[in-house]
Write a structure and sequence with these properties.
5 helices; Four Helix Bundle (Hemerythrin (Met), subunit A); mainly alpha; elongated; 144 residues
Length: 144
Amino acid sequence: MGCLTDFLHQDHARCDDLYLKAERLAADADVAAADKAFLAFSEAMAHHFAMEEQVLFPAFEETTGNTAGPTAVMRHEHEQMRGLFADMAAALSAGRADEFLAVADTLLVLMQQHNAKEERILYPMSDRVLADADEVLARMQAIA
């Protein structure tokens, strides 16, 4: 694997762990703890999306000249996930762990499919086509 693929795969795993913690707490009906865990997850995802949308995707598009390909699909899926995050946060705010879990099931399927596309296609392709992959990685790591 290349440097971008490894780094972003590890970040996916970190986000997945945070998601699973929130889901477990909601399944145990510990809404307050689930809400706190979900906040940590959603902040991690916002950071991950920012690294991709502000650095990786523009670098990929500039190098390949392709703005309607994989990065467009990934941006669209990010927006879908953001909508689900909002629904999940609202469910927890209302104390409805069952509603949170129903939306979480939808999110999990979307995330698994999304991550597989990124990890199998976009990230390895980025490692191959970006001559400055190390610099792109450094810029992603600099995002607060």
